[in-house]
Amino acid sequence: MGLEAEILFVNPDYLKRLTNLSGAVDDDRIVPSVIIAQDLQIQQLLGTKLYDKLKAEIKAGTLTGVYLALMDDFIRKATAWWTMVYLIPNLYVKMDNGSLVIRTSENSISISEGDLHREIERARQNAQFYSYRLVQELSPSSFPELKENTGQDLQPTGRTYFQNGMTVSGLL
Predict the structure, then answer these.
(1) Per-residue pLDDT at 161
(2) Over the stretch 87-102, which tens digit does the pLDDT of each residue have?
(3) I need a labelling partner for 110 at 20 to 30 A (CA). Which of 31, 47, 49, 160 fits?
(4) DSSP one-letter string for the chain
């Protein structure tokens, strides 16, 4: 029995068009960061029920109306930039034969650790902006799933602001 394919809110082509990610980066290096961004950041903003509904509708090909607009106008951009926050370090460092190595190419030089952190922070600032916009758009009257989370479900973050690189949130 094989693993079920993960439903992605953004694909590698979208990331390459929206960000400065090179077309030469292999898709299989991008997808794990998309999954992490969705699970750790986007699910927290949407709550489990809305997150699962969107994934189910994408899988079924039935995403329409306010849900499609939310996805196209807000969720995809936030997901893309959170993906970059997680992807950039993985483009710099690679696990190879049981050890961590810094990736290099014949035609390039590696950036400094300070440059790496600056690029991550730039991506984080973009991600935080789009996350803030996403949270502003969420309304229980338009998305009743926001109030349907119970038990082990993640409750949606209702207010989000950022200070000194940290996210400060409150519930709806």
Answers:
(1) 54
(2) 998 887 777 777 766 6
(3) 31
(4) -PPPPPP-SS-HHHHHHHSS--TTS-HHHHHHHHHHHIIIIIHHHH-HHHHHHHHHHHHHT---HHHHHHIIIIIHHHHHHHHHHHHHHHHHEEEETTEEEE---TT--PPPHHHHHHHHHHHHHHHHHHHHHHHHH--TTT-GGGG---TTSPPPEEEEEEETTEEEEEE-
Q: Is 136 exposed, middle or buried (0-12, 13-18, 19+ CB in 10 A)?
A: exposed
Q: Rg for the chain (alpha carbons), in Å?
A: 17
Confidence of residue 108 (pLDDT cuts 50, 70, 90): low
Q: Which residue has the tokens 């991550």?
A: 120
